[in-house]
Amino acid sequence: MVSSARLAAAIAIGLALMYAPVRGHAQDAGTTPAGNGTTAASTNASANAIKKAADGAADKKNAKNLAQVTVTGIRASLESAQALKENATQIVDSITAVDINALPDRSVTETLQRISGVTIDRFVSPSDADHPAGEGSGVMIRGLTQVASQLNGRDTFSANSGRGLSFEDIPAELMSGVDVYKNPSADIIEGGIGGTVNLRTRMPFDAPGQQIGFSTGVNEGDISKKSKPSASFLYSNRWKSESLGEFGALLDVSYSELASQTDGIQLEPFTRRTDAAALAGTNFKQVYVPGGADWRTLDFQRRRMGIAGAFQWRPTDNLELYSQFIRSSYRMSWLEHGAIFADSNFDITPASGTDFNYNGQGIFQSGWLNSDTWRGNYPGSQNGVGFNGDTRYQVQTTTTTDWSNGFKYNVNDHVILSGDLQLVKSNSNETDFTIFSETYLPGVFLSTNGSHGMPSVTVSPAGYVNNPANYFWSAAMDHVEDERGMERAARLDLEYDFEDSKWLQYVKFGIRATDRDEDNVSSPYNWGAITQPWATIDTPSGLATLNSSLPNYSSLYSFANFFRGQVNVPSLYFPNGTLATNYSQAYSILKTIEASGGWKPVQITPADLNNQGEKTKAAYGILYFGNDDALGIPVDGNIGVRLVRTSENAAGQGQYPTLAGNDLPPAVMAMYNGQYFPVDGRGSYQNALPSFNLRFKLTDDLQWRLAASKAMTRPDFSQMQPFLLLGATLNPDKTAITQWTGTAGNPDLKPMIAKQYDTALEWYFSPTGLLYTTAFFKDIGNYIAEETETEVYNNQQWSVTRPYNIGTGMVRGAEFGYNQFFDFLPGWMKGFGVQANYTYVHSQGGVNTATNPYSGAVVTGFPLPMVGLSPHSFNLAGMYQYGNWQARLAYSWRSRYLLSTSDANTHLPMWSDNYGQLDASVFYKVNANIQVGLTMNNLTNATVKTLMGPTSYGNGVVDYNLYPRGWFVTDRRYELVLRANF
């Protein structure tokens, strides 16, 4: 660890020596970068530090005045973000919107990906790689998912994401900027070993007077063909009175909708086969055969609404009071038609008279498929392959409210006292409901390398799929969530400025306390049969066929223009979407045709409840220092420590198995009848989090930074769930218990800890010209992973699997960035500019448990990288602003990364392959107040591709191949936008 820190320092020194002979251009004293103004009552401790640095720099040669805005548009935003980075007392990257409603992207998540070291997911959930999201989702910093989220410097969260904020829930139109802290100082709230993202909203005192801004637009996807609106409005003003001082008020509202369509085709897991049918016609001793293919279309709808309000009152020059309120509401729904392979992988054989085709490594390429799965008496089922027609509807609504009130008081010329009270409430509800039809398709031909390198599927005879008599109502499955979180927080800070000190600038102390409650309900996925070959009703086949049972509730879905016509797949009959979206009435309809003991809506049990409380107390002290002459060059920095105590309590239950009805000793069966018993969790822990930042100003424009700190991330509430489910495995004749097992959360988990080191070299050669490089290292302890241990309940030993703090990890890498407008070019060409950054990340310490695809048993896994970590990522953007025109063409790319060590559907490690997306925008200024423009996303029609593997078979046998799992394509999106500012 120490050697790595020295290595990082050596790299930075070498870079500094390389750049030292290059004298940056002295900045024009008449040019002032754009900013958001200064807010006297800022609640953001880090923003106060930035302001302090900027104020101190104002008295020095070649200083920058952040309070004035002399330009607008892309250039102004770049200048403002660059000035924040240059004058900050720590390493920070920012994106600002000097113009109202003008963040570079239409979602906060997609804006964040433009920052070096930040990458985003494109899936609804990393554990479910079958469902890409319509917009970017989870945020990772330097490959780590443990990211703290703040709003105006205060901790915030979404109920459906546990610790942090779902950034896609928050309207981008409400933001004035976003800041990313990768090695935070002691005055920043703890919580993210990856880093901290702070979202900034506007305050009325940011502007010198009245501001009015609005925007409106309409967007459409080229596949979905659905037009959706967006609109926002901001009003801000400030007034002076002779007796009561100065007042300021702001109101900002936004509304936006989005519709998109995603087409996907997938291969089922490849399994090692040594049977004669699979080997026929080959010289291989073993081959690898997929279990079939799936294809699906997902129609996604999103509605996002937000309102932000702020009030500031400065009754005297020394006192300011403020109130900030923000409320966001996010509703997401999607309706999916999925043709999903329904047989066992190992029952797939070549159709009669055919052999499978393999490549030189024995990997399946194409063939006519048959299945040996038992079909019962269903007519026409022989020599067919089972497919489900899944009609799935998921709807989720998340509402988050954040209200804060505070003050800032200049006690005298050297002492500032500030504080605030905050209330955060977040509610999230989800309903996920699927209805399944089923058929056995004859003459299925699968090619894994069809058109454009993607699989293709055909059925012979083709007309078989058009007859509803060839399908039956198969099953239904539901899942519900209701999550509620609330946090109350209070803080108090004191700042003292030193007078006439050669080294000491100022010192800050602060205390903060929180009280948070989490009341979460999450049911299992409740699958139940409607009719099956083993669950029959009184019909000739024993099944409820679509032509005779509820015929008005199913229809043929054609998969028209699938993958824009590039991939061939058959049509299928599906349950109607109107039935899937009517969850409250579906059971009363389906129960009229289902077999005895069939599907019933899920019932909440104590196992589905997770109620926890958490209190924290924190205190920090941080000393800022600096000297312009003592070392021959200006140097400044800060050193501090944050002390945190966390107390947790959780009340839950354990449940014994039900053993009645078996041929066991009566005393044993009587002892275990599914009864519950109390399981409580209570504990506390303390953490000391030191931090150190040092900056050397090698020239007027070149500065070198060093940073070291200790960070923490508390475990997710889902990992600490106070529920223990005990079970018993019986021998085949049910006369003896062969194993006592259990699964549980762990309320005793401790936070993950990271010791982190950064060094950065930054060259600011013009107001919008920046070249920088950063090397970083993180040593991670208390990594959380599941493990099985022996525990005793009721005098019986049980093998219980629960999460523990058992792992360690390491992350290291480097970032490089470059921004510049080419002002040296003549005439209109000086409007061109470029932004570029690249990040390299390497990790060690990933934990993996594997599942044998033959037996389903958990077997010894193999080393994997950390989840979410791409070794390589970059952003490249071309900019143009001249006269009345401004435009941007931005490409973001990240290399392959691990989505999950055990995917929810395949139980294999799942990877997202290399992915890049090109976005663009162009705006024309009609006059000084009005702009019209066009924004465009996914111009290159990028394909999201997933991979699966390696596959463990036990006894040290591992197939290290990464097989293709899925290909997904979604809309190109276009939005016409009108903006006005007055």
Automatic annotation (TrEMBL):
First and last residue of the signal peptide: 1-26
Alphabetized UniProt keyword annotations: Cell outer membrane, Membrane, Receptor, Signal, TonB box
Compartments, record wording: Cell outer membrane
Domain TonB-dependent receptor-like beta-barrel, first and last residues per copy: 426-939
Source domain of life: Bacteria
Domain TonB-dependent receptor plug, chain residue ranges per copy: 86-196
Family classification: Belongs to the TonB-dependent receptor family.
Protein name per UniProt: TonB-dependent receptor
Species the sequence originates in: Dyella mobilis
